[in-house]
Design brief:
four-stranded antiparallel sheet; Thrombin, subunit H; mainly beta; single chain; Methylamine Dehydrogenase, Chain H; 337 residues
Length: 337
């Protein structure tokens, strides 16, 4: 009888432990993280559930950003060059194409001239768009033929990052040294207008409903909120520290604003436009990726070589994914290749 009671107690303790462990672990991701490592000149395929690197593919010097095709089969890495925006260095002119199932470099898209291509996006039209920084433009590429179809002028230098509206009709570029945002018509492939923001800006994001665009003043702790109906700054979000990047949650409730100088992510309530909490992240973090299900945010710690894992319900940090210094651009592969 005593032995039976002991066994029941042990079983209950094991069940409780399993439940607690489950509560303290991220929910299953049903996908893979794809990470550009600009120091190593590689693309990493990472299992976020097992917290381990599955593959490392060598790419050109340097790839900062990555985007994944809608079916999760291919990754595109623009080869920017060996310097930062506005600084002297090599001028990239290609985009490397990686097969995520075969886990190898399968092609290189040649852009035809030095452009410092940086950010890439797949539009709703299925075309590949990439910032062509030295041309003050966005290049439009057919992924099936891997040929450049058009170049859309931004009218401004250092068009570094951009976002595309969900209907595919508009793009908004953050023009770093110019301190402006360009609004582009992707149907007519033309410049609509340029919005003055600050002396210098960095990076850009858009609310899920497409009504607001956010870009980050680099000289003051504030985020510009642009009304896409009027293409004017509607308001500012005050922050404790200057932000470098931001990303909204899929439900439109929160904006995560990254302040790498302070090693913090600020959580902004998009109803009140107020910061409600700040959370420590790895040093020299550079990019935020919110998982499509809205459960988890991943933050690339370029200097630390870690990917922070933030639970968007509890606002607690799970153990980071330990990689190598240089991790930068993040993308999501929707199914395990």
């Amino acid at each position: 009888m005593i032995a039976r009671v002991s066994l029941l107690l042990i079983a209950a303790l094991l069940l409780t432990s399993a439940r607690l462990g489950s509560a303290n672990s991220p929910s299953p991701s049903h996908g893979l993280l794809v990470v550009a490592n600009q120091y190593e000149h590689t693309l990493l395929i990472v299992d976020p559930d097992e917290r381990r690197e599955l593959a490392k593919i060598v790419v050109g010097v340097n790839g900062h950003e990555v985007i994944v095709s809608k079916d999760g089969s291919l990754a595109y890495v623009p080869i920017y060059g060996n310097s930062g925006v506005g600084r002297p260095g090599t001028d990239g002119s290609t985009i490397d194409v990686i097969d995520l199932r075969e886990r190898k470099l399968v092609s290189t898209i040649v852009l035809g001239k030095p452009l410092r291509p940086h950010r890439a996006e797949i539009g709703p039209d299925g075309l590949l768009y990439v910032s062509a920084e030295l041309a003050n433009a966005l290049d439009v590429i057919d992924p099936s033929t891997r040929k450049v179809l058009a170049e859309i002028p931004t009218g401004q230098p250092e068009s570094h990052m951009f976002v595309i509206s969900s209907d595919g009709r508009r793009a908004y570029t953050a023009n770093v040294g110019a301190g402006t945002v360009s609004v582009l018509d992707l149907v007519k492939r033309s410049l609509i207008t340029t919005i003055p923001v600050a002396k210098t800006v960095q990076r850009i994001s858009m609310s899920p409903d497409g009504l607001r665009v956010f870009t980050h003043d680099q000289d003051a702790p504030r985020i510009a909120v642009i009304d896409t109906a009027t293409n004017k700054i509607a308001s500012w979000i005050a922050l404790p520290n200057p932000a470098y990047a931001s990303e909204p949650t899929p439900d439109g409730r929160w904006l995560l604003a990254l302040s790498p100088g302070a090693n913090l992510v600020h959580v902004v309530d998009l109803q009140s436009l107020k910061v409600i909490r700040s959370i420590e992240v790895p040093k020299k973090s550079s990019e935020i990726l919110v998982r499509p299900d809205g459960q988890i945010a991943y933050v690339s710690g370029t200097g630390a070589g870690k990917i922070a894992v933030l639970d968007l319900h509890s606002w607690e940090m799970h153990p980071p994914i330990e990689l190598t210094p240089g991790v930068d651009g993040l993308a999501w592969a929707p199914a395990k290749p």
